[in-house]
Design brief:
Number of strands: 17
CATH architecture of the largest domain: Alpha-Beta Complex
Bound molecules: hexanoyl-coenzyme A
Structural class: alpha/beta
Distance between the termini: 61 Å
Number of domains: 3
Number of helices: 19
CATH superfamily of the largest domain: 2-enoyl-CoA Hydratase, Chain A, domain 1
Strand content: 15-25%
Shape: elongated
Radius of gyration: 26 Å
CATH topology of the largest domain: 2-enoyl-CoA Hydratase, Chain A, domain 1
Largest sheet: 8 strands, mixed
Length: 510
């Protein structure tokens, strides 16, 4: 018996070494943690339970039968984050470069199936040279099995990808179908075709980091939702995010203890909006002042900064925030901000996370760039996302809510539950100057008359009361009491239920 126990320990020891000490040292030398170190940091201490530690590949080509490291390049299993169940896989670059074989894929599929069955998030840590070249089509089939599971799990359990090394070719499409992608700066990259192929085909000379690094994907492409300095920071931030999310689409997010009075009054908010309607102010200040303990988890912070998306807690409960940012492009909606916010709204709706919308929007950004780029279709994504959402929705208009953008930003007409406005709100078809130049075109040569017309228009429409008279605004509230009003509104909506007509699925303008 003792022998058998010792043998087991020995086999475990060997498996834990992955591709061997030299390769582990090389991994560390690049500033990267090993697959197991990452799992340990991600999960609560001592909570990890491993599956399939002794699985080996079945390939016999190219001398592979002589190299069969236990685990086959991926560490899989389950554990907890702040006491809540999650499933995890972590690719081991020290074993055949973390490349995906048939059996490696089967290990990932096994934990994905368990996660869906048991209603818990999946977190995938990617560090891989892609398809196991020695296995050919068996490896491609393995990828497709993972893809299919990503699709089926979408909207059922949260799926999070952390890119901590190479992720190239078709391999990128599994993370691409998950809910969030996080990357580590300078040690991870994602691209469909690498720098060498790019050079051959398009003659562009570009480094891997420029083509698909964390900065590129968080600022330019918006493929990734966050970029972090190193593995440790990235994993700590994933823990923070998981703590905000429900385990699955039938559960509510966890309620955490809070030490911030929901009735807290913030007098400074009374002067947040500048007296000149064209002067910007920082919408993040409002978000931080509304949130429990001023804690805001921002998603896609570096992309389309004219709209802000992320999570706060109110009375310990997660709320998704979408807010126009007047500091960037005057808070206009455009292609990028519409796409960014639409995806966020749909995530919240899929996972029963209430949505708070803070509005200061002068309209859609004009220009050929926008029109040729399809702003009609992209803007419609956000409109569609809000209109189909059935989670509790509270909207606060702080200043401008002009034109179509007024409708889009969780207006009453899209079934938002509470629509509040600050006294500084201006709900109108457009700004006074633009409106005057159209309806009083004949007076364009008379600056005095135009100024008078603009003032008349402003007096009539540059306020929240015309909308409030029609019931499109439920109440005009004091800025200082916004946290209290919003928290009470969400509290009243906790049992909200909406019936929608049967359909197979909608046809959101993609
Ligand atoms: C088998 C692989 C491998 C792979 C790396 N290795 N990629 N083994 N299949 N795909 C092995 C290497 O042989 C090496 O083994 C070890 O992993 C580390 O690799 P290095 O090249 O030494 O590391 P590094 O210099 O850091 O370069 C990493 C790399 C490079 C950029 C990822 O290895 C590389 O270009 N690999 C091939 C990438 C690729 O073409 N993959 C297939 C893409 S097609 P030893 O024993 O020396 O340590 C694809 C399709 C997916 O993925 C389709 C899905 C639908």
């Amino acid at each position: 018996m003792k022998d058998i126990l010792e043998q087991l320990e020995q086999r475990r020891e060997d498996a834990r070494l992955g591709g061997g000490q030299a390769r582990i040292d090389a991994q560390h030398g690049r500033g990267k943690l090993t697959a197991r170190e990452r799992v340990d940091l991600l999960l609560d201490e001592g909570s990890f339970e491993e599956f399939d530690m002794f699985v080996t590949h079945r390939c016999t080509d190219f001398g592979m039968q002589d190299q069969k490291p236990a685990g086959d390049g991926v560490v899989t299993g389950w554990g907890t984050i702040n006491g809540r169940l999650v499933y995890v896989f972590s690719q081991d670059f020290t074993v055949f470069g973390g490349s995906l074989s048939e059996t490696h894929a089967q290990k990932i599929c096994k934990i994905m199936d368990m996660a869906v069955q048991n209603g818990a998030p999946v977190i995938g840590i990617n560090d891989s040279g892609g398809a196991r070249i020695q296995e050919g089509v068996a490896s491609l089939a393995g990828y497709a099995e993972v893809f299919q599971r990503n699709i089926e799990a979408s909207g059922v359990i949260p799926q999070i990808s952390v890119i901590m090394g190479p992720c190239a070719g078709g391999a990128v499409y599994s993370p691409a179908m998950t809910d969030f992608i996080f990357m580590v700066k300078d040690s991870s990259y994602m691209f469909v075709t690498g720098p060498d192929v790019v050079k051959t085909v398009t003659n562009e000379i570009v480094t891997a980091e420029e083509l698909g690094g964390a900065v590129t994907h968080t600022r330019k492409s918006s493929v990734a939702d966050g970029a972090f300095e190193n593995d440790v920071e990235a994993l700590a931030e994933v823990r923070r995010l998981v703590d905000l999310l429900p385990a699955n689409n039938r559960e509510k997010p966890p309620v955490r203890p809070f030490f911030d009075d929901p009735n807290r009054i913030e007098p400074s908010l009374d002067t947040l909006v500048p007296s000149n309607a064209n002067t910007p102010y920082d919408m993040k200040e409002l978000i931080l002042k509304l949130a429990d303990e001023g804690d805001f988890y921002e998603i896609q912070e570096e992309f389309a900064k004219n709209i802000i998306t992320g999570f706060i807690r109110l009375e310990g409960r997660t709320v998704g925030v979408v807010a126009n940012q007047p500091m960037v492009l005057a808070g206009c909606l455009d292609i990028d901000s519409s796409r960014k916010a639409a995806r966020f709204v749909r995530f919240c709706d899929a996972f029963e996370i209430p949505i708070l919308t803070l509005v200061d929007v002068p309209g859609f950004l004009p220009g050929t760039g926008q029109e040729f780029g399809g702003v009609i279709k992209h803007g419609a994504k956000l409109l569609f996302a809000y209109g189909e959402a059935t989670v509790p929705m509270v909207t606060v208009i702080t200043r401008k809510a002009y034109g179509g953008a007024y409708d889009v930003m969780a207006s009453k007409h899209l079934r938002s539950d509470f629509n509040y406005a600050w006294p500084t709100a201006e709900v109108a078809v457009m700004g006074a100057k633009g409106a005057t130049e159209i309806i009083h075109r004949k007076d364009l040569n008379d600056p005095e008359k135009i100024a008078q017309h603009a003032k008349d228009y402003e007096d009539r429409f540059a306020n929240p009361f015309v909308a409030a008279e029609r019931g499109f605004i439920d109440e005009v509230i004091q800025p200082r009491s916004t946290r209290k009003r919003v928290a009470r509104a969400f509290a009243s909506l906790r049992n909200k239920k909406v019936q929608t007509p049967w359909k197979k699925h909608d046809n959101i303008p993609l």
